Amino acid sequence: MNTERLVELIRRAPVLAALRDAESMDRRDLEAELDVSKSTVHRLTRSLREHGLIEREAGAFVLTPLGRTCAREVASFTATVETAWELAPVLAAAAAHDVAFDMAAFADATVTTAAPGNPYQPVERFMTLVDATDELRGLDPAIINPLHIDALHERIVGGMTTEVVFPTSVVAELLETNPDRAERTFASGNFSILVHDDLPFGLTLCAERVGVGSYDDDTGLLRTYADTDAPAAREWAEAVYDDYRDAAIPLGEHPELARLHPGMTVGESE
C-alpha cells in the first residue's frame, strides 16, 4: 500500500471517527468536536476530499463509501495497536511459551494498568469480575494478593466453582500460610487446584468475561489486566486453558504438595 496514503489515514483518524459517529458535520461542528481552528478544519477537509474520503452534501461533510470503510478499519487498527502496546508483556510471555495470542480478539478489551497512586487497580478490576460470576477457572503464575484472598475464600465457600492452575511454589505458599483456611476452602467442594510450573501469564475465565494479565517481576503484583466478553477471546482462552490444564498435575497426585497436608485428595481430576 502507498505509505503516504496510510500515514494520511492515521493522521486524519480523528476526523474520520467524528464523521463516522455523527454521519454528517459542517465546519463549525468539526471545529467544536476536534477543538481546532477554522483554518485547520479547512486544511483537513480539503486533504480528505482530495483523497476521496469525504464529500459535501447539503453544506455538510459526509464520508464516502471509501471513507466509511477506511474509518472503520482505521478505528479497528488503532484500537488493536493501543491494546497491543498495553499488553506488550503478555505478548512477550506468549511468544516465549509458543502460545499464539489472538490480539484482534482483545482489541476492544477493558485494559486496566497499575498506577503510581494505585498499584492495585488491575487486581481490583479482576475482583469485580469475581464478584459477578458463579464460576472461575484460570492460570495464575503468582500468589494471590493478600488484600483479596479473604474475599476469594468467601466467594468460593459461598458457592463459586473454582478451578485454578498454579505453579508448585504458589500452591505450597497457599497451603502453608493458612492451612485452616485452605482446608475450609477445599471442604466446600467448590475448589480444585492443578499444578504447572511453566505458566506464560495470568488467564481468567469467568461466566461472562475472560481476561489476561501480566505481573510485576519485583513485586509480584498484577500490573496489567485486560478483560473482554468477545466470543473470539473466549474461544482463544478456552483453548489455552485446556492445553495447560491437560498438561498440569492434579493436586492430589502431586507427592511434594500432598505431603504438606497428609490425606488431602481434593483437586484430583476425574
Plain-language structure description:
Residues 3-84 form the HVO-A0261-like N-terminal domain. Residues 119-246 form the Methanogenesis regulatory protein FilR1 middle domain. Pfam families: FilR1_middle, HVO_A0261_N. With 270 residues, the protein is of the alpha+beta class. It folds into two domains: 3-75, Orthogonal Bundle (Arc Repressor Mutant, subunit A); 87-258, Endonuclease Chain A (Endonuclease, Chain A, 2-Layer Sandwich). The protein has twelve helices and eleven strands. Strands 4-10-9-8-5-6-7-11 form an eight-stranded mixed beta sheet, sandwiched between helices. A hairpin with a 3-residue loop joins strand 8 and strand 9.
Describe the SSE topology.
Layout: H1 3-11, H2 13-22, E1 24-25, H3 27-34, H4 38-50, E2 54-57, E3 60-63, H5 65-86, H6 88-96, E4 110-113, H7 121-131, E5 135-139, H8 146-157, E6 161-166, H9 168-177, H10 179-187, E7 191-195, E8 202-206, E9 210-215, E10 222-228, H11 231-247, E11 249-250, H12 255-258
Parallel strand pairs: 5-6, 6-7
Antiparallel strand pairs: 1-3, 2-3, 4-10, 5-8, 7-11, 8-9, 9-10
Helix pairs in contact: 2-5, 3-4
What descriptive keywords fit this protein?
alpha+beta, 3-stranded antiparallel sheet, single chain, 2 domains, 8-stranded mixed sheet, Arc Repressor Mutant, subunit A, 11 strands, 270 residues, Endonuclease, Chain A
For the report, how would you describe the main beta sheet? 8 strands, mixed
Number of strands: 11
Corresponding CATH architecture of the largest domain: 2-Layer Sandwich
The CATH class label of the largest domain is: Alpha Beta
Strand order of the largest sheet: 4-10-9-8-5-6-7-11
Q: Please compute the radius of gyration using only Cα atoms.
A: 24 Å
Structural class: alpha+beta
Topology as H/E string? HHEHHEEHHEHEHEHHEEEEHEH
